[in-house]
Structure formats: C-alpha cells, structure tokens
TrEMBL record:
This is Alpha/beta fold hydrolase. The lineage of its organism: Bacteria, Pseudomonadati, Pseudomonadota, Alphaproteobacteria, Rhodobacterales. Residues 33-143 form the AB hydrolase-1 domain. Pfam families: Abhydrolase_6 (PF12697). GO terms for molecular function: hydrolase activity. It comes from Paracoccus methylovorus. Residues 1-20 form the signal peptide. PANTHER family: SLL1969 PROTEIN.
Amino acid sequence: MRRLFLTPLLVALLAQPSGAEDADDGPAADQCVVLMHGLGRTEISFVIVEQAFAALGYQVVNLHYPSTEATVQELLGYVDGAVEECGDKRVNFVTHSMGGILARAWLNDNRPENMGRVVMLAPPNQGSEIVDALGDLALYRFFTGPAGLQLGTGPDGLPYQLGPVDFELGVIAGSRSFNPLLSSLIEGDNDGKVSIASTMVQGMTDHIVLPVTHTWLMNSPLVIGQTVEFLEHGRFDPELTMRDILRRFTQ
C-alpha cells in the first residue's frame, strides 16, 4: 500500500537525473530547509521530502533528535546544530507532528538572521487529546518519554504555553484516520493522532486540510507539493493538482 502511495513522486524524482545540478541558477540556490521529524520517529521518515527538496536545488538538513529521551527544552540544542549547517542561507523549517512544537519552542527564543518560512505537518499546536487520555499509563510513558508527556491540551501543556507564532507559518492538517481506537479519543475530524482544530495556532499565515493520515502524510505528493508552494510563495494553493506537482519536478 505504502509503495503504491509513494510511486508518483519517486517516478518524478527519477525522471530528473540532474537533481540539484542547476541549483546555482534556481530560486532555491540560497535556501536551506531544516526537516524535523515527529515523536518516536527518525530522519528516515523525511527521506522522500529530503529527496524532493534536494531535486529542486535546496540545501537540506534532515535533523535527527532523540525525541523520546528528553524534554522538548532539552532537545533545543539539536536545532541549534541543524541551523548552523545552513550557514548564510535563508533558513526554512518543515516539521512533522511534535517537530512543530520543537520548532515553536526554538523560535520563541531564537531567530536565524536570514529567517525563511515554516511549514508544519499535522502539528499538535493546541495539544493532543491522546496525551490527556493516555498520559497516566505506564506503557504510554514508556513509548513517548518526557517530551510526549508535555503535549497535553491544558494550560500545563507546552503547546499552550508557547503562545502565538510571529513568523510566516503554513499548517497542513490531515483528515483521514486508519486508527478508529485513537480517533475515538479525539473530538472532531482528525488524522488518527491530531485533530484538525488542534493543528491551528494564532498568528499562522495559512492553513490547508488534505485527505491524508498522520503517520505517513509527509510522503504524500500532495503534501510535498503544497509544502513547496508555501515555502516559495508564502501561501498554499487549493487548486494544486497531481499534474501540477509532477510537472514541477520534471520541468
């Protein structure tokens, strides 16, 4: 199932053998994208996105951080190192799930001199009802670690404490769930882990809902296409089609 899901974008990337060869001539030549994975994941989850942006000529830093071994505050140093790798280039961020909370926490006290745009994929910007419901269970605490326990929806949760954002932010939410058990713990439409309402945050620039599920939404060609659209133009394009996306990667 996943293999078929990835095929269109992989075909497009393979059809562009030169990859970043023309990067010095393109609009992405002076741009860097820092990728920040979600809770319990690794940089491998962003490999397709990494390839996509590299094919467009961006410098890509695919950050790995031990998401289940420390609090969000203790993980901020990993972001420092990733941003340093961008050098003097414009720094953009693309995050998944808890990676968005880590980005918000870092950007509250830091700002690259050449700050770009941010796209968050399914971020629990208002916290997660799943943490509220399961956070006291030993098994949940074992698998999510200290950072996972900070993502509740109440005033004690880190998302609430971070406040509004003050940078160009586009948020992509998913509306498909393949996990009815977890979805039963979430109020309203959701992607199986995060509600659409929870992805929103005061100060965001744009928001779009796509028919994708939480775990693999970063590999959806539609999500990748809209992410590129926002980083390049500062807005999403609701009319963007698969044909448009494939043309972008094969031109």
